[in-house]
Amino acid sequence: MSAYTLKIRRFDPETGDTARWQDFDVDLAPERSVLDGILQAKDREDASIWIRCSCRAAICGSCSVKINGKTGLACNTRISDAAADAKNGSIVVEPMGNMPVIKDLIVDMDAVHWKKVQRVIPWLLPEGDPPEREYIVPAESMIDITQSMACIQCGACVGACLSLEVDPDFIGPAALAKAYRFVGDPRDGATEDRLVDLAEDPHGLYDCTHCFACVEVCPKDVAPMNQIMRMRRQATSDYEIKDNNNGYGHEKAFVGLIEKYGTLHEAQLLPRSFGDGSLVKGQTDPKAVKQLVEALPTAIRGVKSGKVSPLKALIHHKLPDQKQVRRIFHEIESKDERLELNMYIVGEVGGSNPDLDETAPAMGETGDEG
Fold this sequence. Notes:
Blueprint: E1 2-10, E2 20-28, H1 34-44, E3 64-67, E4 70-73, H2 79-85, E5 90-94, E6 101-103, E7 106-107, H3 110-119, H4 146-149, H5 156-160, H6 162-166, H7 173-183, H8 191-200, H9 213-217, H10 224-238, H11 247-261, H12 266-273, H13 281-284, H14 286-294, H15 296-305, H16 310-314, H17 322-333, H18 360-369
Helix pairs in contact: 3-7, 7-10, 8-10, 11-12, 11-17
């Protein structure tokens, strides 16, 4: 047995007091979990500690908390590992962020997480009359959505999302990953409608800022940001949805500039993003002109900081061997079907989600081809 100290954030709204910290010393084997430590403290020292838990096997997702500042499952975190990461010797345990705290380590999932999941219409919307029995699809056509199907709705990604900290109305990583589960399902008949809805929502597809927090904390390697990026590519490349959030224009501008110069021409990125990505046609569109005028303060700040200058706006040097970059673009664009690269997986393959082991080689082969 080893001795560990848990520093638990306590909060009881019924008392009217502010939140406080309370230390508990627990004796556990190093391989036991942080949840075991919390339950031991609850059993032996203070029965009033509140925490959700059920399976203790990283399946139900109930025990999501923040441990040493990082969101995760208490039952899936070894107490010895948490102690090694702790500062000042105490394992700090507190409720997840971005959600109201009900009491101690329990947050209101209904107010944020489940409300956002409901927003994306989390069920199939098939076309036509239902079949006499079940919908049958080839197993290989479902491989693409197995990653998003692995989600256990623990809310860890929601608690860690930096975009949600800035914009509480952001639909969020868990809900958008759930949306891809149906966007990518061959049985669903509302793919384009779903994409239009999420692309046009100012708090939807393009509100994600690529912070990678959801990828890092997900206990099942769902990589929500990966699913968000896939829906963006479908919205722009497959359906050419020219949304009011300029997601379409920004992607086309970014890709076009890299293809032409090899590096990002930042002085041109903003004006091209407001149109269709092109230099002249996009920027002369009345809507784009209006947005350009509104963005003038941003451009002025760029000039003052030295990041942008009139010379840089007019001249941008290409890479010495830019033809090789263009060759890569032409090679990819010549393919009849877009090949998805599953780039946002962290840790060992199948480390926390053995159910995906059988699909990993197929995904790897697809990525190699691209």
